[in-house]
Amino acid sequence: MDLDLTEVEAVCKDLYVRALKLLPPDIKAGFTDLAREETSATGRAILGTMVENIAVAERTKNILCQDTGIPIYNVVIGRDVRFEGADLKAAIRRGCERATTEHSLRSSVVHPITRVNEQTSCGIRVPIIHVDFDDRPETVSVEMIPKGSGSENGSFLQMLLPSDGINAVKRFVIDRVIELGGRVCPPTIVGVGIGGTSDLCMHLAKVAATRKLRTPCTDPEGARIEAELSRAVNELGIGPQGLGGRSTSFAVHVEVAATHITQNPVAVNIQCHSARRAKATFTPGGIAFD
């Protein structure tokens, strides 16, 4: 399959707008689950306001949150797909720019030193583009995630020692959730990376935070820990927007990687209640939006 980069550009533009305006079905279902279990009247009221905000955004075709985030594109390429890599990245960037300028989106991206904003949601090494490969024949998937600053500021890394044990990993996660309180717009998805190197561990935490809600970790030990932590964080009493209740988090998600014998990194990356993402898949039969 020859990948049409003109189509890629158009899809990447549309995905940015879709992600900002349409909350994924699994997150909507997550609100229903939290509301059913919430015992605090204040918590139930805040959850209801959040659900209404989602409905209003869809009715008015408006964005869910003023923060258009740092744009992230995750690309997975299957077998027998032909394209030029540099041209693919350029097409994704053009799509990101067009979404911002053609839809009058607020650009939240600035130079880290001068703070100059190009007003395109792009800059040095932004949009962030991750490319991976799988064995699906003639298939390319593109996922767009606008990662908001409020939740992204809830990011932490600790290089633990193996002798600290798994309880130190759990304690680190719980302590960070307590430290953040309502600053990350709960209910959240708490992404946890365990293992790898410092940079891989942080990346895994973000993969976990932006994973489809309550899809289990593929590693059995990781799945066990995320189930324990999911229960634990909702016993903290932080609640929606930090105002009390059981609905602190939709779930804790964990991703793991092998690591060195003398280290055990753990990272936390938070996704807020407006857990936005959009996905499209290219095949010879056309383009499908998920």
Q: Based on Cα principal axes, name the global outline.
A: globular
The portion of residues forming beta strands comes to 15-25%
Let me know the largest β-sheet.
Answer: 5 strands, mixed
Give the overall average pLDDT: 97
Backbone structural class: alpha+beta
| Structure annotation, total helices | 8
Number of domains: 2
Low-confidence stretches: none
What is the gyration radius calculated from CA atoms?
19 Å
Please provide the count of β strands: 9
Reading the helices and strands in chain order gives: HHHEHEEHEHEHHEEEE
How many angstroms separate the termini? 21 Å
Residues in helices, as a percent range = 25-40%
Strands of the widest sheet, in order across it, are 2-1-3-8-9
Pfam families: Fumerase
Protein name: Fumarate hydratase subunit alpha/L(+)-tartrate dehydratase alpha subunit
GO molecular function: fumarate hydratase activity; L(+)-tartrate dehydratase activity
Organism: Methylobacterium goesingense
